User: Fold this.
Amino acid sequence: MRVARKHLLKLFAFAAAAGAILMLAIADKRSPAEQSDAPRAASATYTVCAHHEGTTAADPTAHQSVASHVAAGSRPIALTDESLMPCQALGPAAPCPVCAVDCSCGPCRNDGDWSTARVIPWQAFAQGEYVGHERTAHVPQYRLRVDDQLEFRYRLTRDETATPYELNVGDTLKIESFTDEKLNREVVVQPDGTITMPLLGRVQASRRTAPQLRDELEEAYTKFVKVPAVTVTPMKINTKLEDLRSVVDSRYGSGGQSITMRVTPDGTIALPAIGSSVPAQGLTLEELKREINERYVKVAGIEGIEVTPALFARAPRF
Assistant:
């Protein structure tokens, strides 16, 4: 039984060898047309292009060297060969040239058809670029409209002001007298704009500069002290600016000092400290920037900050 199985396996092996020899003999007797198709099929399998001067993608000889190499039964040519380069590097149309109608010349706008198509130099646009010329702006200047979403970025200018700083509510002052230490103290400007001093009681401090407040205190203290010699030192100022920064501060969130607003149906926006009636519809971003910064100075009385609006999202189009 074992001897019969051994002879049967040998018979199958001889049959397989004879079949392989027969297939090779049939392959060698292919017609000339079939043999001419072999390089074409091989070149389609190995997508590489000859990188020679003057060779175009439409040239049928571009793949000849690769086809002969593959048809000879050799290993595939590496794409790192200096004489070869991937077809994809030639552009989106490689290895075949693609004709198109250039609408910038006018055929698309008239009665042009595909008869006006010509070869387009796709390689000039390179990979990752638009398949076409550079895109120009839709409009020379974009003007805001309802439902546009804007991001307002706040920046401290730290510019020198033209006028002396006037004390505001919340400012901290250090008041000292070189002749009477009992008058020395640190006070905060109250919501009504006053401070409380010994022997004087409430003294108006807001809307006054530090030298003006010093002169008023010295004049008031001359009733009690022969030479008061009072000095006023601002310890914490710009409280309005700090309050505004606290509203728009997002350094612990998305980062920076900014706030996002949407143009309301009445064409206005609402920003901290300047109200909800800032006109925006129909303005450019530069015009809106000037309007907002002017309102912060004239309406809110806050200097030292610059607001820059940026278009975050355009209103939907239907």
Q: What stands out?
A: DSSP finds six helices and 14 strands in the chain. The two ends are 86 Å apart (CA to CA). The first strand starts at residue 48 and ends at 50.
